[in-house]
């Protein structure tokens, strides 16, 4: 039994528990960097100092009041609505909400010892004419066998729950500013 305790103490728990935790931290980091890449690639045109916010233009016709004073007849107007693309998309914002690490160690030890003793003996006496012949023999056999088996079973279960997180406060504020950047331009349509 002492070997089992020593065996259990020799397990490197920093690998079994720390490894999945480090993987979760790396996954969280990768998710953040993915969000930054998404914003750069999808939300902007150009690179570096020359990058500009990418807009999507919607063009439609709308009936508006006549701009000429005293004329009550409505007029058709073509409206161009320019919307920042980022304000129309869901920006990926995954975060790890919960992580459970289940580590089970099962050590079985089986010891078997077989001892068998065997004694074998024989004696013989023979006589011949005037001579007497005596034969004796003896044998002893002892067999010792010992078997020791240790079975090790380790199981590691990692349960990770990721959720779509709220945007960070700074990014949410920028998204609000982008909504304010929506521009509608109206031009009268001539028949």
TrEMBL record:
<protein>
    <submittedName>
        <fullName>DUF2589 domain-containing protein</fullName>
    </submittedName>
</protein>
<dbReference type="Pfam" id="PF11655">
    <property type="entry name" value="DUF2589"/>
</dbReference>
<dbReference type="InterPro" id="IPR024510">
    <property type="entry name" value="DUF2589"/>
</dbReference>
């Amino acid at each position: 039994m002492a070997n089992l305790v020593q065996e259990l103490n020799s397990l490197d728990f920093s690998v079994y528990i720390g490894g999945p935790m480090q993987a979760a931290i790396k996954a969280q980091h990768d998710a953040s960097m993915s969000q930054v890449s998404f914003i750069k690639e999808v939300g902007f045109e150009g690179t570096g100092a020359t990058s500009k916010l990418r807009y999507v233009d919607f063009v439609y016709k709308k009936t508006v009041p006549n701009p000429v004073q005293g004329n009550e007849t409505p007029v058709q107007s073509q409206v161009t609505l320019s919307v920042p693309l980022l304000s129309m998309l869901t920006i990926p914002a995954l975060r790890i909400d919960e992580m459970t690490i289940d580590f089970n160690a099962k050590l079985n030890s089986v010891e078997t010892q077989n001892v068998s003793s065997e004694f074998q003996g024989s004696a013989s006496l023979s006589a011949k004419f005037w001579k007497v012949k005596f034969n004796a023999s003896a044998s002893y056999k002892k067999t010792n066998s010992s078997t020791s088996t240790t079975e090790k079973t380790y199981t590691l279960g990692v349960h990770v729950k990721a959720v779509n997180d709220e945007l960070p406060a700074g990014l949410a504020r920028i998204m609000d500013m982008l909504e304010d950047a929506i521009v509608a331009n109206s031009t009268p349509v001539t028949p």
